[in-house]
């Protein structure tokens, strides 16, 4: 739904854009800066819809007119999206853009060019784009999305109005997910794992039910397995399609065990629908804080491309030593 009111966690960015709409002082170029998946593109589409809405009142797009519907569907003739071809945005794409800009926009108040991964422009492409920015066509608005603003030439950055997007607070993401009908426990876990990225949270929420059961199963089996079974668990973990996410869920389980061991406060437990199982683990293991640290250390080593098998063996056998004999 293309509506500023539906977007949470980016108040400062949205207020800046709303003020521009109401004052009709629209910059020729905006640079949206923030982590991947944090919501930059949704705000860009909403801003584009508001600029070209045929029945806008205030700053909100009506979502009903033909212009709003076309932008939402991605087929508005005056809304163009440029994506990297392969790993970069090439000079040929900017030359084609220049040719397109020679013509007047068709039916919108503005012609809007959305450039995803703007930092992927080659040097030639960036120089070509700079020339466009130096003499921007009348009625054209550029919206550049980037996660790495330092990779863009300072000359391009200085000619854009920067709009910063920070990670969305965990509580706000959880509330969003719950409003979409996602169970509270799943919403809290997805929000915790999302690192402030709304799109990532929704993806986690879809996958988390099965993945969470697998993670808890791994954690519990490790604590009671013999040596042969531990090696089997290592082999299974090696085959995980997204090992880091699985380790994150295992870490969350040990975090909850640690919280129960150190505080006994149910309200602080995230996996609170697994409280009885969690209490049993807490009573049969030594300091779960060490288990949490073991998992986090393994995650860090894997990001450093240390030998996968060796990291997992050290992790699994390290966790097994936490079980009370």
From TrEMBL:
<dbReference type="InterPro" id="IPR004622">
    <property type="entry name" value="DNA_pol_HolB"/>
</dbReference>
<dbReference type="GO" id="GO:0006261">
    <property type="term" value="P:DNA-templated DNA replication"/>
</dbReference>
<dbReference type="InterPro" id="IPR027417">
    <property type="entry name" value="P-loop_NTPase"/>
</dbReference>
<dbReference type="GO" id="GO:0009360">
    <property type="term" value="C:DNA polymerase III complex"/>
</dbReference>
<keyword id="KW-0548">Nucleotidyltransferase</keyword>
<keyword id="KW-0235">DNA replication</keyword>
<dbReference type="Pfam" id="PF09115">
    <property type="entry name" value="DNApol3-delta_C"/>
</dbReference>
<dbReference type="GO" id="GO:0003887">
    <property type="term" value="F:DNA-directed DNA polymerase activity"/>
</dbReference>
<keyword id="KW-0239">DNA-directed DNA polymerase</keyword>
<protein>
    <recommendedName>
        <fullName>DNA polymerase III subunit delta'</fullName>
        <ecNumber>2.7.7.7</ecNumber>
    </recommendedName>
</protein>
<dbReference type="InterPro" id="IPR050238">
    <property type="entry name" value="DNA_Rep/Repair_Clamp_Loader"/>
</dbReference>
<feature type="domain" description="DNA polymerase III delta subunit C-terminal">
    <location>
        <begin position="211"/>
        <end position="317"/>
    </location>
</feature>
<keyword id="KW-0808">Transferase</keyword>
<dbReference type="GO" id="GO:0008408">
    <property type="term" value="F:3'-5' exonuclease activity"/>
</dbReference>
<dbReference type="Pfam" id="PF13177">
    <property type="entry name" value="DNA_pol3_delta2"/>
</dbReference>
<dbReference type="GO" id="GO:0003677">
    <property type="term" value="F:DNA binding"/>
</dbReference>
<dbReference type="InterPro" id="IPR015199">
    <property type="entry name" value="DNA_pol_III_delta_C"/>
</dbReference>
């Amino acid at each position: 739904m293309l509506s500023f009111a539906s977007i949470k966690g980016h108040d400062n960015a949205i207020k800046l854009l709303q003020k521009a709409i109401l004052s009709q002082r629209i910059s020729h170029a905006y640079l949206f800066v923030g982590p991947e998946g944090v919501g930059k593109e949704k705000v860009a589409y909403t801003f584009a819809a508001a600029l070209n809405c045929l029945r806008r009142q205030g700053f909100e797009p009506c979502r009903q007119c033909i212009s709003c519907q076309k932008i939402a569907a991605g087929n508005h003739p005056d809304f163009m999206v440029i994506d990297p071809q392969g790993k970069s945005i090439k000079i040929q794409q900017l030359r084609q853009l220049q040719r397109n800009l020679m013509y007047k926009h068709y039916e919108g108040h503005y012609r809007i060019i959305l450039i995803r991964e703007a930092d992927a422009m080659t040097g030639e492409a960036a120089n070509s784009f700079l020339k466009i920015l130096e003499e921007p066509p009348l009625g054209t608005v550029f919206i550049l999305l980037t996660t790495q603003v330092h990779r863009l030439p300072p000359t391009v950055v200085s000619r854009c109005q920067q709009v910063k997007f920070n990670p969305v607070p965990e509580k706000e993401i959880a509330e969003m997910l719950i409003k979409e009908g996602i169970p509270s426990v799943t919403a809290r876990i997805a929000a915790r794992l999302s690192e402030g990225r709304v799109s990532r949270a929704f993806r986690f929420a879809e996958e988390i039910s099965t993945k969470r059961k697998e993670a808890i199963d791994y954690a519990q089996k490790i604590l009671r397995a013999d040596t042969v079974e531990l090696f089997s668990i290592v082999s299974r973990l090696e085959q995980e399609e997204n090992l880091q996410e699985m380790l994150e869920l295992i870490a969350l389980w040990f975090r909850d065990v640690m919280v129960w061991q150190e505080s006994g406060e149910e309200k602080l437990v995230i996996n609170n629908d697994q409280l009885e199982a969690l209490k049993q683990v807490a009573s049969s293991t030594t300091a779960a804080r060490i288990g949490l640290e073991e998992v986090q250390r393994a995650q860090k080593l894997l990001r450093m491309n240390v030998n996968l098998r060796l990291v997992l063996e050290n992790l699994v056998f390290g966790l097994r030593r936490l079980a009370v004999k």
